[in-house]
Amino acid sequence: MGFNCGIVGLPNVGKSTLFNALTSTAAAEAANYPFCTIEPNVGRVGVPDPRLDKLVEIAKSQKTVPTQLEFVDIAGLVRGASKGEGLGNQFLANIREVDAIVHVLRCFEDGDITHVEGSIEPVRDAETVETELMLADMDSLEKRLPPLQKKAKAGDKDAKALSELMERVLNALRDGRPARSVEISNEERDMFKQMALLTGKPVLYVCNVEEASAGSGNALSAKVAEMAARQGAASVVISAAIEAELSQLPVEDKLEYLSSLGLEEPGLNRLIRAGYGLLGLLTFFTVGPKEARAWTVRKGAKAPEAAGVIHTDFERGFIKAETVDYNSYVTLGGEVGAKEAGKMRMEGKEYLVQDGDIFHFRFNV
């Protein structure tokens, strides 16, 4: 099950530097000129979760396997991208394929790094990118809607439902509002997803600040936080320069480096967790002497779906899920203690997976 976040923004805001730090590779060339990232680069990162370390400690597991999140480094957008400017069509197509958008905004001054707009105004930059995405969505819907409306008039019920949803979204876009601002019923969610709208994706704003502001942010990142709050979105403060330095250090030196900067953890940890939450995901665990492993499943998933994340046979032949919540497992010292205290439960096909559940799946194929 793949979940990914596309890293977007204007050129020279720190996208590729951030991506390199995330993946601890030099897969994306970070250079001081627009469009240094021509093809999207993809990297998978482990989601930091101290609960997994605790489970390993209790179960004495030989191996630790975190759940993973995929990041896609997409080249910088510029004004006119919706009309093909700056390789815009290619970049917009890449954004369309991701599940969520991590929007990097430059919140630092540096005369040595050019800015395509000539000044540092992150809220304006966010609006520039959002406008291009909305224009691209409008163009897409305006082409797709007329044929659907013809089918609807001919009595096609599915076409009628989809065309009505498209009209609502199109009206919002024409009013300057992104597709994600439109209220969608549960019955309409699949249709909305199938529309593959750029502005229908959840957004996380990443404020790339100078080193001195990595802990608490600065005046520019504060403006972004206010904008995100108005939109019901989230924002994270990070210094891509610090993260790039950290990614090159040996593990034993990282904590010392962070401490010297007055930081408790890498900013990337906050970013990864925020991206994970942005996608509406939760984590469950499997624990044993050989391996303790974290797995990803969408919120609202039932036990068989979680079993299927491990192997399709588990879902197909699902019988029961033996489960205990994380807090009980830790408090009672592991599986044996949880069983003795009656905290280990047998759950069936309708059980809704909770974040932190520890599972043993029973299946028959």
Account of the protein in words:
- There is one protein chain.
- Helices cover 42% and strands 19% of the residues.
- The protein contains 14 helices and 12 strands.
- Strands 2-4-1-5-6-7 form a 6-stranded mixed beta sheet, with helices on both faces. It has a 3-stranded mixed beta sheet with strand order 3-9-8, with helices on both faces.
- A hairpin with a 3-residue loop joins strand 8 (281-287) and strand 9 (291-298).
- Helix 1 packs parallel to helix 8 and helix 4 (122-153) packs antiparallel against helix 5.
- It is flat.
Label this structure with key terms.
365 residues, alpha/beta, 6-stranded mixed beta sheet, 3-stranded mixed beta sheet, flat
Entry summary:
The chain has 14 helices and twelve strands.
Give the topology.
Layout: E1 4-8, H1 15-23, E2 41-46, H2 50-59, E3 63-65, E4 68-73, H3 88-96, E5 100-106, H4 122-153, H5 157-174, H6 189-194, E6 203-208, H7 219-231, E7 234-238, H8 240-247, H9 251-260, H10 267-278, E8 281-287, E9 291-298, H11 303-310, H12 312-316, E10 318-324, H13 326-331, H14 335-340, E11 345-347, E12 358-363
Parallel strand pairs: 1-4, 1-5, 3-9, 5-6, 6-7
Antiparallel strand pairs: 2-4, 8-9, 10-11, 10-12
Based on helices, strands and strand pairing, what is the structural class? Answer: alpha/beta
Question: How would you sum up the major sheet?
Answer: 6 strands, mixed
Low-pLDDT parts are 25-38
- Element-level helix/strand string: EHEHEEHEHHHEHEHHHEEHHEHHEE
Helix content: 40-55%
**Record field, number of beta strands:** 12
Note the beta-strand portion: 15-25%
Numbering strands along the chain, what is their spatial order in the largest sheet?
2-4-1-5-6-7
What Rg, in angstroms, do the CA atoms define? Answer: 23 Å
Average pLDDT: 86
General form: flat
Distance between the termini: 21 Å
Report the total helices. 14
Oligomeric state of this protein: single chain
